[in-house]
Structure formats: structure tokens, C-alpha cells
Design a protein that fits this description.
It is a single chain. By secondary structure, this protein is α/β, with parallel strands linked by helices. The protein is built from 13 helices and eight strands. Helix 5 (92-103) links the parallel strand 2 and strand 3. The longest helix has 18 residues, at 204-221. The termini are far apart.
């Protein structure tokens, strides 16, 4: 990434802080100045976003944007290490900003406490040099990808599930693959469970998030070889890494505008091509129904024994 650093410099405190960077022959003052001037946007302050944000701020990225409207839950703390117990019930974005400033008060942090959408993605992305995807669902991944393609922004991708993680760099140049070259069509929702449904070992997002941070630093500074055209697959149980090549598909759609990504990723009825409707009720509605014996409800719990042992509804 070509930045003009003539107008910025390192303070005496920053020289001391980043001294281990500065003595690297491949890095030095020029790369550190590029980090200081750079603007990086992270989508999500969860498992992947936690190590990503911490290492980017510690490395000296001068401006970090964060999109997240979720609140810290106790179950997050097993892997989302940027948050602490005192932040339970509070916004993840505020928690992450506080921790970043504890690590590096020189880092400017802009938070967006709102869901990423087709209405705001292009406006938000336009202010940043690199976009880091720390999301956990397909609609947002396709949205991030398409917004990056339209604006010509590098997309540093990561994903995790159970004991396996993936990382890559999409849209680095106009000839680079993007996320649609890896996954042209979203899989049926019931085929890919979330971490909340399938579980994830706590250290896994730390490893993948740090790989994303490494790739982001390399993109900004121009050092090394990135994961452009490569998908890195990590298996924590085998402690192994595999590398797969990603090419540009001839059938890849040309992205000119953002679409309805929830509809794009929703399950389709093959016969009438309409979205399948599944009736839902809230926990409060279920509670009211169960209080009334006249309803004679049969509540069937289809989770496994471990999940049932963690939390269960009486008489299910």
C-alpha cells in the first residue's frame, strides 16, 4: 500500500514503543509510518475481531474503525479476549475501544454501533484502506465482499468452526479472487451450524485472528507475500496447516450494486422458488404457554446430552 508519509512522523514515545519493529531490516521507520497513517475497518468485535483489534492497535495502526452492535455475553469470554467480565451486558464496541486505548492510546478508534447493511456499508467502507471480515454469517460475508469489490478495497477474510479455521485475502488487486470465487452460492443454512450451535475451541479464533492481523499489516506496509489467491486452512486437532489455491471463476458475477443479502442466503423452495417460512415464538411466549395446563403442549428438545445438561426447560 503506497502511502505518502512526508506529513507524519514518530514521536519519541512511539519510537520506544515500536522499537522492535524499527530494528527489523524489512520493516523500519517507513513501514511504521505507513501503519500510523493507515485506516483499518474491522467488522465484528467477537472471536476473530478480538485478537485482530488488539494486535493491529498494538502494532501501531493509527486509525481503526469497528462495526458491532452486539453486547458482551458471559459465554463470549471463553474466546473473545478483548472483553472482560466487567463489560458483560454492555456494548462490545465500547468494550473493545476501551481495551484498545489501554493497549495503545495513540490509536484513534471510530465505532459504529449499528448493523452493517446495504444502506451504510459503502459509506462506512469508503473511509478505510483495508477491511477485515470478522463476521460469523453468510449474508454479512457476501455484503462485506461485494462492498469491497465495488470500492476496490482489500478484504482480509477469516472464519472458524469447532476446531478448524480458514483465512485468505480477497480483492487485493483488480485481478484477485474475491469471496464469491471461494463460495459462489451460499450453502443451505441448516448445512453450516454457527459456533453457538456447534461450538468452538476458545484458542482457535485467536490463531485465525492473528493471521488476519498479520495479513493486514503486510498489505499496509507492502512487505512479504499475502494470502492473495490462497486459502489457508488450519486444523487445531491435528495442529496442521493446508494451503489451497483460489482462482478467479469465469462465471463470477460482476458486482455493480449491493443486494438483499438475507434473501440471497435464505433457503429456497425448489418447486415454487419461495422462501421457506418457519414459525417462531419467543421464550416469553413459550413461558406463558407452559404455565397454562389447558394447552397440553409437548415440548421436544432435540439437542444433544451435553447441551441439555448445560441448560434445560423443565418437563421437556
Amino acid at each position: 500500500m503506497d502511502n505518502n508519509n512526508s506529513e507524519i512522523s514518530l514521536t519519541k514515545e512511539e519510537i520506544s514503543r515500536y522499537s522492535r519493529h524499527l530494528i527489523l531490516p524489512e520493516f523500519g521507520f517507513e513501514c511504521q509510518l505507513r501503519l500510523k497513517k493507515s485506516k483499518v475497518l474491522c467488522i465484528g468485535a467477537g472471536g476473530l475481531g478480538s485478537p485482530l483489534l488488539m494486535y493491529l492497535s498494538a502494532a501501531g495502526v493509527g486509525n481503526i474503525g469497528l462495526v458491532d452492535f452486539d453486547k458482551v455475553d458471559e459465554s463470549n469470554l471463553q474466546r473473545q479476549v478483548i472483553h472482560s467480565t466487567k463489560w458483560i451486558g454492555k456494548l462490545k464496541s465500547e468494550s473493545a475501544k476501551s481495551r484498545i486505548h489501554e493497549l495503545n492510546p495513540n490509536c484513534n478508534v471510530e465505532i459504529y454501533n449499528e448493523p452493517l447493511s446495504t444502506q451504510n456499508a459503502l459509506e462506512i467502507f469508503g473511509n478505510y484502506d483495508v477491511i477485515c471480515d470478522g463476521t460469523d454469517n453468510f449474508p454479512t460475508r457476501y455484503l462485506v465482499n461485494d462492498a469491497c469489490v465495488i470500492l476496490g478495497k482489500p478484504n482480509v477474510y477469516g472464519s472458524i468452526l469447532k476446531f478448524e479455521g480458514q483465512a485468505s485475502v480477497f480483492n487485493l488487486t483488480k485481478n484477485s479472487p474475491n469471496y464469491r470465487d471461494l463460495i459462489p452460492e451460499p450453502p443451505p443454512p441448516d448445512m453450516v451450524p454457527s459456533c453457538a450451535e456447534a461450538g468452538v475451541i476458545g484458542v482457535l479464533p485467536g490463531i485465525i485472528g492473528m493471521i488476519q492481523a498479520t495479513e493486514t499489516i503486510k498489505i499496509i506496509t507492502g512487505i512479504g507475500k499475502t494470502l492473495d489467491r490462497r486459502l489457508l486452512v488450519y486444523d487445531a486437532l491435528d495442529m496442521s496447516f493446508r494451503e489451497l489455491k483460489i482462482g478467479v471463476s469465469k462465471d463470477r458475477p460482476i458486482i455493480k450494486k449491493l443486494i438483499n443479502y438475507k434473501q440471497f442466503c435464505s433457503p429456497k423452495n425448489i418447486e415454487n422458488n419461495q422462501t421457506e417460512i418457519i414459525n417462531k415464538i419467543s421464550v416469553w411466549e413459550l413461558h406463558e404457554l407452559l404455565k397454562d395446563d389447558k394447552n397440553a403442549i409437548c415440548l421436544l428438545d432435540v439437542r444433544n446430552k451435553v447441551e441439555y445438561k448445560i441448560s434445560k426447560i423443565i418437563n421437556s
